[in-house]
UniProtKB/TrEMBL annotation:
Domain YdhG-like: 25-144
Protein name listed in UniProt: Unannotated protein
InterPro entries given in the database record: YdhG-like (IPR014922)
């Protein structure tokens, strides 16, 4: 089984953001850096070469291997900005039995419907520009994603 390459690094997230080539993408990254710090109350940390993460959580794969990954974060990529809202979107329509999780799932689904121009995949929320989305709704999505994550896993500051 391949090793997970998305691990914390010693790279300074602020230096990484300052080096983003496209001015608009860099400005969006600076906005997200401040937004996520405020939402999480945690300092940013680089995960792999291009993901800025906040907090971390531990989970177990089907084969029993334990993994650790960022709790939430983003990556200013060339094509778009990717926000990582764990535990993801794949199970939003699953029949979940926990009332708290059901309520959070319904709220997250409603927020995605009014966010603005975006697309989702697994745990990724793709936006071309922050100007294309409602930042208040985006903040709710990140908060609700973290609430969902806390209801399913132990999350720490990492």
């Amino acid at each position: 089984m391949a090793e997970n390459l998305t691990k914390p690094t010693a790279v300074d997230p602020r230096a990484f953001v300052a080096a983003v080539e496209r001015p608009g993408r860099r400005a969006d990254a600076e906005t997200l850096l401040a937004l996520m710090e405020r939402i999480t109350g945690r300092q940013p940390r680089m995960w792999g070469p291009s993901i800025i993460g906040f907090g971390r959580y531990h989970y177990r794969l089907a084969n029993g291997r334990a993994e650790t990954i960022l709790a939430t974060g983003f990556s200013p990529r060339k094509a778009n900005t990717v926000l990582y809202v764990m535990p993801g979107y794949d199970d939003l329509t699953d029949d979940l039995t926990d009332d708290l999780t059901d309520d959070l799932t319904d709220d997250l689904t409603d927020d995605l419907a009014v966010l603005g121009k975006h697309r989702t995949g697994a745990s990724c929320l793709y936006v071309n520009r922050l100007a294309d989305v409602d930042l208040d709704v985006l903040e709710r999505i990140v908060r609700r994603g973290l609430d969902r994550l806390h209801s399913l896993h132990d999350v720490d500051a990492g």
